[in-house]
Structure formats: structure tokens, C-alpha cells
Amino acid sequence: MLTRRRFTAVTGAAAVALGFGLPAAAQEITIKFSHVVAPDTPKGKGADKFKELAEKYTDGRVKVEVYPNSQLYKDKEELEALQLGSVQMLAPSLAKFGPLGAQQFELFDLPMLFKNRDDLRKITEGEVGKNLLATLEDKGIKGLAYWDNGFKIMTANSPVINPDDFLGLKMRIQSSKILEAQMEALGAVPQVMAFSEVYQALQTGVVDGTENTPSNTYTQRVNEVQKYGTISNHGYIGYAVIVNKKFWDGLPDDVRGQLEKAMAEATEYANSIAEDENKAALEAMKAAGTTEFHQMTPEEHEAWLKVLKPVHQKMADRIGPELLQQAYQALGTQ
């Protein structure tokens, strides 16, 4: 049952989205911003920064309600909720767009694609990234920005240093055909699972290991139930900040302009802290002593590359051969 305050917020936002001419003083626009990670992750802090700036720049005409840790929706539910208008804003992992029919975003899931953040920026800040966001519009979604989390590490309850170490391991992944192919290339058994369920699954042995960034690994306490980790940096996790297109297009022009300004500044902030957050998380996990971490050597990196690079061509038809070549061209690789 809606409270009086919630009813006012919802109907006010709906009126704006539908173009009803409410007096400026009567407008109260609520943006529900839902995400699945902890508040003290790069994405969590970025969401809170957007809330702060959006409310400041709109002089309180917009209220942003941030719901972290899957409080409203789990991984598989949130995109449908956005399309239905039950929530206005999300920052899903880029891997989440594949099941929505936007397989092109699984480009970001390709293992061993980016050497570093400079490589990453060539995509997210270039034509490839802009064109990818534009493909969401016919699904009722407006893409606003890319937010970093970082590069992934592997964890398990047995050492995962060489490709052969993964043979037969049940490894949790996000829902992504690319990530399935990655784990299969390593000889592992991919297990698709919601982020909020990973800790318990690792604790009870439903899965043997997982991949994630140090920040997500630490804030979800995954290191408490994983004995070994390899700092492989084999793949990337990032997010697209998205909004319900009908809601966004229905906002008054001045409000939308202020929200765009808030998003640009929140994006700069979130991306500037991501690398430091991951370094700090890795050091905290090392200090905790529950997980033994291995720093990958150049020789080990080459061994992983030999096994994982073929995934690119294997999945080229899924993400689009032309898109893959555009990405290679932007990165100066083959």
C-alpha cells in the first residue's frame, strides 16, 4: 500500500513524465536509483554522488532515492522493472544487456581485450561506446554514462594460477554467453547466479569459485569463503547508467539539463575513485589473511592469453564481427 508521501512522489513523477502542466512549485520528481552492490563500492559511491548533485542542482525539485544491495530488485529483475517504469534509474553491469537482446554489450566481457584503463577509455569515450548506448533506445532505455568498476581477479578454494587449474571447477558468472565461453575455454563449469546469492553459494560449496573485481569481492565478503585468489586482470566489469526513456524524455528541459550536469560530474567522480577503491580492497583482503593471493607473472599471462583469446573469434557472430573489428581498430590490436 502506498503511503501519502510515496503516492505524491509517484503521481508527481508520472504527471511530469506524461507532460501534465503542473506548476513548478508543485512538482516533486522522484528518481528511484536501484543497484545490486554495496554503498561503499565505486558504483555505490557514484550513485550517492549523483543523488547529492541532482538534488543540489535542481534545488530540490528532484529527489533521488538510492536502493543498494538488491534492496528492490535482483540482477535478473531490475531491467524489466526499469522498462516497466517501476524504477527510473539503474547502473547494471554491461553483461546484463545480452539477455535483453543487446548482445553487442558483451564486447566488454571478452577476456584479455583491454590491457589497461587507457585501452578502456578508447572504447567507452569513443564512437564504439556511444553507438552501443544508442542501441538501447528502441528498448525503452536511455543510456547516460559508463561507470568503471575495474579489472577482475579469480578466486576459488583451490589455487587458480594456470588454465589447467580450472578443470572441473564450478565457477559463478554473470548471465553472459561470453563469460560462459570464457569459463568453458578454461575447462570450468560456468554457473549463472545472482550477485546477492554468491556469498552463500561459495560458503556452502554450491560453487567452487568466482570472478569479480577486488572491490566487489571485498565488500561482499567473498574473501572470507575463498582460500585462493589470482590477480589476473583477465576481464573488465563496468556499468552503464541507464534511465527509463519515457520518464527521461518527459522531464522538463531545465530539469533534464541539470540532471545531465549532475550525471557528468558523478561519472567523473565514480571513475576517478574506481582504481583506488580496488587497490584498497585488495590490500584489505591481503591484510585479512583469509585468502592467499597470487600475482600473475608475464609467462602465466601468456598462457591465459593463449587459452582465452580464441573466445573472441568464437563469439564474434554473437556480438557482431564488424563491432569486434571496430574495437580492435580503436585499441590498435588484432
From TrEMBL:
Signal peptide per UniProt: 1-26
Pfam families the record matches: DctP (PF03480)
Keyword Lipid biosynthesis carried by entry: no
tRNA processing recorded as keyword: no
Entry's localization field: Periplasm
UniProtKB keywords: Periplasm, Signal, Transport
Family: Belongs to the bacterial solute-binding protein 7 family.
Name of this chain's protein: TRAP transporter substrate-binding protein
The species this protein was found in: Paracoccus pacificus
